[in-house]
Recover the amino acids of this structure.
């Protein structure tokens, strides 16, 4: 789809008879989940014995990140019509490898941020998409200004995640804004120990492995098939990069997207939301593992942000990767392509992803797949009797990409 084309009308995005028979059930499920979510948040945070203690505990868990100094040249805020503006949140995974079990892939404590995702939330709150940024991409890092006035010199053709090593979230955010001309509204850092606790709080997250994993070097062992992973298993799963994915870090990044999508699905499921103890445990683990900018670093602000997703369905939450290519002098490194500029332009102007970017996206309501799926099966998200040859070929290509990343087709 060209940048200036109008997105297709809603019926065109669900062309199959199966999709047409389910909108009422889907909308009903969405409504029920939202009601349950709001109810339990209110019950957990505003009523009952010990609410004040629980509130203080959650609120005191949150750590605050330093703000970007006033002297830094930043992108302008994009003006849009309506009562709300879009929100861009830069999410970084802390890669310190501190703590038991965190050094499974042999990386060193000073390596930087293992995961960086830009989450864009539309002004109407009906769309949210995360864009993964490969840590091995070579970029031009600008000078970085620290809160005490210290300036970290910029450098050309350096790995994306070096900014985090040198100046943490603050330097990464300044670099991202300089590279994309996209203004970051909020910064979030998530540490891996907290990640494990969040998974355990919802009683595990479902994944599907297309093959067994036998990796004695990193002490990672999995059987093929659909299964529910608990905290340390989940950390092993999203960190593994030598057996599951033939594309190394790129495949691992895709699996991280799929895992986050599956965890979102689990968090809003009835099995979690009907259990106030699990809701509180998840909130406790999440707030304990987060560092946020001062605007978000308090419980009321986080609750308000969560409530703004009331019009966002699971099928409206997508994950993609910034367009990239191999760096010719060194195939172990990557560079962003010209298509990345089109993506940043869409985000700056609060536009939907469009077909070009969303075709291979991972959605929060996607099934985890089946271990028996393969590109030769002709498996397709559309009805097999109505799929065109082009749709079948696209489905087979997507299945092959999932298998290459270590996901079931």
């Amino acid at each position: 789809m060209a940048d200036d084309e109008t997105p297709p009308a809603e019926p065109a995005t669900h062309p199959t008879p199966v999709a047409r028979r389910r909108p009422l059930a889907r909308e009903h499920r969405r409504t029920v989940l939202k009601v349950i979510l709001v109810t339990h948040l209110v019950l957990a945070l505003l009523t009952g014995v010990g609410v004040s203690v629980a509130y203080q505990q959650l609120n005191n868990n949150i750590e605050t990140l330093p703000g970007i100094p006033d002297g830094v040249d930043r992108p302008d805020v994009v003006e849009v019509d309506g009562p709300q503006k879009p929100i861009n949140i830069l999410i970084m995974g802390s890669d310190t490898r501190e703590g038991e079990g965190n050094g499974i892939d042999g990386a060193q404590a000073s390596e930087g941020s293992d995961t960086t995702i830009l989450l864009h939330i539309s002004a109407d709150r009906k769309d949210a998409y995360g864009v993964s940024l490969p840590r091995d991409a070579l970029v031009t890092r600008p000078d970085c200004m620290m809160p005490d006035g210290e300036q970290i010199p910029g450098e050309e053709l350096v790995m994306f995640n070096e900014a985090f090593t040198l100046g943490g979230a603050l330097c990464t955010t300044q670099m991202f804004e300089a590279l994309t001309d996209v203004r970051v509204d909020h910064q979030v850092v998530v540490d891996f120990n907290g990640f494990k606790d969040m998974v355990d709080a919802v009683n595990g997250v479902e994944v599907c492995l297309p093959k067994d994993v036998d990796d004695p070097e990193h002490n990672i062992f999995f059987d093929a098939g659909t299964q529910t992973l608990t905290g340390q298993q989940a950390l092993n799963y999203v960190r593994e990069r030598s057996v599951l994915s033939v594309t190394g870090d790129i495949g691992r990044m895709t699996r991280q997207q799929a895992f986050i999508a599956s965890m979102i699905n689990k968090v809003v499921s009835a099995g979690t939301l009907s259990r106030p103890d699990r809701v509180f445990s998840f909130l406790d683990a999440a707030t304990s593992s987060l560092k946020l900018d001062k605007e978000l670093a308090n419980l009321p602000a986080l609750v308000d942000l969560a409530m703004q997703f009331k019009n966002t369905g699971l099928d409206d939450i997508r994950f993609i990767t910034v367009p990239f290519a191999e760096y010719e002098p060194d195939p172990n490194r990557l560079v962003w392509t010209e298509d990345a500029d089109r993506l940043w332009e869409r985000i700056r102007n609060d536009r939907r992803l469009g077909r070009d970017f969303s075709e291979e996206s991972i959605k929060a309501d996607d099934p985890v797949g089946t271990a028996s799926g393969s590109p030769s099966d002709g498996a397709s998200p559309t009805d097999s009797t109505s799929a065109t040859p082009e749709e079948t070929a696209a489905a087979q290509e997507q299945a092959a990409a999932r298998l290459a990343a270590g996901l079931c087709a």
Notes: The first strand starts at residue 63 and ends at 64. The chain has 13 helices and 18 strands.
